[in-house]
Amino acid sequence: MPLVVVDAGHGGGNAGAVYQGRKEKDDALALALAIGRLLEENDVAVYYTRTRDVYESPVQKAMEGNAVNADYFVSVHRNFSTYPDQYSGVEALVFSRYGEAARLAGNILRRLEAVGFEDLGIEERGELAVLRRTRMPAVLLEVGFLNTEADNERLDQQFYQVAQAVADGILETIQTA
């Protein structure tokens, strides 16, 4: 049975992005839990880095993923821009644009685009601990911009479809590995 680490970004005293009272850590946790449940319903073992509002460092999260010998690591976040409604869409950050992590990222982004998000692509971000320190393919997802009304509306109104899209992208990657 494959094992996927589902990481809800931020948490505890680290709210991540905040806009008009909406906190990235809350959206990330709700979405991560929903994605994990969908994976579990499809016979995928899930390790959650957090299931409540606590903070662990990105290095700690990467080390947990390594300790459980996970097959994949998916970190859920929301993006933020300098000005409200400046940008819209989803993107995936990976250590390298080549290999299994990039394939996982592409599969997830394609599914999120089908839900209605603009696909902003895959970006290399080798300095991020959850990408650099993990021994398995790892993706950091930016699921819409927290300070873009259209992205918040899509996430709120299509929450289940968004979670299903991410889960389906992960499942597709597992099934074609």
Strand order of the largest sheet: 4-1-5-8-6-7
The CATH superfamily name is: Zn-dependent exopeptidases
CATH architecture name: 3-Layer(aba) Sandwich
* Strand residue percentage: 15-25%
Structural class call reads alpha/beta
Structure description:
This protein has 177 residues and is of the alpha/beta class. It has a single domain, classed as Zn-dependent exopeptidases (Aminopeptidase, 3-Layer(aba) Sandwich), CATH 3.40.630.40. Helix content is 42%, strand content 23%. It contains 6 helices and 8 strands, in the order βββαβαββαβαβαα. The strands form 2 sheets. A 6-stranded mixed beta sheet has the order 4-1-5-8-6-7, sandwiched between helices. A two-stranded antiparallel ribbon has the order 2-3. Helix 3 links the parallel strand 6 and strand 7. Helix 1 crosses helix 6 and helix 3 packs antiparallel against helix 6. The protein is globular. The two termini are 13 Å apart. The mean pLDDT is 98.
Short characterization:
The protein is of the alpha/beta class. The chain has a single domain, classed as 3-Layer(aba) Sandwich (Aminopeptidase), CATH 3.40.630. The chain has helices at 24-41, 58-67, 100-115, 129-132, 149-157, 159-175, and strands at residues 3-8, 18-19, 22-23, 45-48, 72-79, 90-94, 119-124, 138-145.
Feature tags:
177 residues, alpha/beta, Aminopeptidase, 6-stranded mixed β-sheet, two-stranded antiparallel sheet, 8 strands, globular
